[in-house]
């Protein structure tokens, strides 16, 4: 079993016992601003949505016309295949926030249907400022991905009782713009099998375990730049490593794992 699957599998032990606080949502045609302080985000349309507690996307489809924010106190679990999230603007994660967005049978099975693949989308940018735990699988992101810092340092302790350690993983996404991931100090990181319309910068990311900084199987229209990552970026150790396909230049530590 891969390190990614081991880490992801720890989510199955999470027990969510929270209350729901959603305010300002009136109807699909006249959506207001919503806040979830815990529990299930109610299906429907919102003008904007802020996650301030442990909230799940398992009650039906949710449409956010403008921005969705995961606050520093928030944890948003969207690892469900039968409920779809559509964000028209940006998805923002504040320092210390937790985001688990997207699932599939291969990398991280959906809680509600292990055979399903989620279909979430973000119209503009995914912006993460020192997020604690960030999982982004199988999403359509119209703009850029920018993650600056994050993790809990050089350990692999659980971020909440019976939960996984802090880690960052991008897999199977379609990203219309560029992606920049830098300054992580975390248990493990991965960036694999993504389709990126611009450049990818993966710099100064350090992990607690020596299998971190997995970068493989990506199709990148622009350049792939990797500098000062420790350990050095590497391909999957099995069963078949897949090189990164780069349209322009592969630079730094990723030059040897790209074509």
Mean pLDDT: 91
Q: List low-confidence stretches.
A: 14-30
What percentage of the residues does DSSP assign to strands (E)? Answer: 35-45%
**What is the CA-based Rg, rounded?**
17 Å
Helix tally equals: 1
Q: Give the fraction of residues assigned to helices.
A: under 10%
Q: Give the count of structural domains.
A: 1
Coarse shape:
globular
Tell me the major beta sheet: 11 strands, parallel
Number of strands: 28
Q: Termini, distance in Å?
A: 27 Å
Structural class: mainly beta
Question: What is the H/E string?
Answer: HEEEEEEEEEEEEEEEEEEEEEEEEEEEE
Secondary-structure blueprint of this entry?
Blueprint: H1 3-9, E1 33-36, E2 39-40, E3 44-46, E4 48-51, E5 54-56, E6 62-64, E7 68-70, E8 75-78, E9 85-87, E10 91-93, E11 98-101, E12 121-122, E13 126-131, E14 133-137, E15 140-141, E16 145-150, E17 168-171, E18 174-175, E19 179-186, E20 189-192, E21 195-196, E22 200-203, E23 206-207, E24 214-216, E25 219-220, E26 224-227, E27 245-246, E28 250-252
């Amino acid at each position: 079993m891969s390190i990614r699957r081991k880490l992801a599998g720890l989510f199955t032990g999470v027990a969510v016992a929270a209350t729901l606080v959603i305010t300002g949502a009136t109807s699909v045609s006249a959506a207001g601003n919503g806040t979830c302080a815990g529990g299930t985000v109610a299906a429907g349309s919102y003008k904007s949505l802020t996650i301030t507690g442990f909230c799940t996307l398992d009650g039906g489809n949710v449409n956010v016309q403008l921005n969705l924010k995961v606050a520093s106190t928030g944890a948003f679990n969207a690892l469900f295949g039968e409920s779809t999230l559509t964000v028209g603007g940006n998805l923002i994660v504040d320092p210390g926030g937790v985001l688990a967005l997207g699932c599939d049978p291969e990398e991280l099975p959906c809680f509600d249907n292990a055979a399903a693949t989620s279909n979430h989308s973000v119209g503009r940018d995914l912006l993460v400022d020192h997020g604690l735990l960030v999982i982004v699988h199988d999403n359509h992101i119209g703009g850029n991905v920018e993650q600056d810092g994050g993790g809990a340092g050089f350990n692999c302790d659980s971020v909440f009782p019976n939960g996984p350690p802090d880690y960052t993983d991008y897999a199977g996404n379609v990203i219309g713009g560029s992606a920049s991931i830098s300054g992580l100090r975390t248990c493990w990181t991965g960036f694999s099998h993504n389709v990126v319309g611009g450049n990818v910068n993966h710099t100064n990311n350090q992990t607690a375990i020596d299998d971190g900084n997995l970068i493989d199987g990506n199709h990148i229209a622009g350049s792939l730049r990797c500098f000062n990552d420790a350990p050095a970026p590497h391909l999957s150790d099995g069963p078949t490593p897949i090189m990164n396909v780069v349209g322009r230049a592969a630079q730094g530590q990723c030059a040897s794992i790209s074509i």
